[in-house]
Amino acid sequence: MHLLRERDAGVAALALGFLVLCYGFMRHATVPRWAALLMAGGAVVAVIGQMIFSTALLAAGDIALLIGMAAVGMEVLLETGDKWEHPAVFEGWGGLLPHH
Fold it and tell me: What does the pLDDT read at residue 81?
């Protein structure tokens, strides 16, 4: 039972990472909004499915993640050469975290 809890914590941490990534995608409109929402929702549904041993929920979450990530991948693959040569410059966390 102890191993189960550690695995669930790892899956939940991965989902949290996806949620933060999707927040950034939506905040800066770098990918279609629906793709970010599918990834975020899929991550949450997959974690719930994992924790309650629901194969159907886990599969639904994984499919949503797959579709969302495929859309993000297509955005990257279809980038023009000009955008690759002149990428956006990272200018800090935009007020999300305090500067030191």
Answer: 77
Q: How many helices (H) and strands (E) does the chain have?
A: 4, 0
Residue 26 token pair: 């939506």
Q: Which of 85, 75, 61, 60 is nearest to 25 (CA)?
A: 75
Q: What is the pLDDT of residue 36?
A: 93
Structure tokens at 37: 């929402």
Element (H, E) at 81: helix 81-85
By the 8 A CB rule, do 22 and 40 touch? yes
CB 49 within 8 A of CB 55: yes
Token pair belonging to 29:
């409109």
Cβ-contact 37, 76 below 8 angstroms: no
Are the C-beta atoms of residues 63 and 51 closer than 8 Å to each other? Answer: no
CA–CA separation, 2 and 24 (whole Å): 34
89: left (phi over 0), alpha (psi -120 to 50) or beta: beta
* Tokens describing residue 89: 């410059």
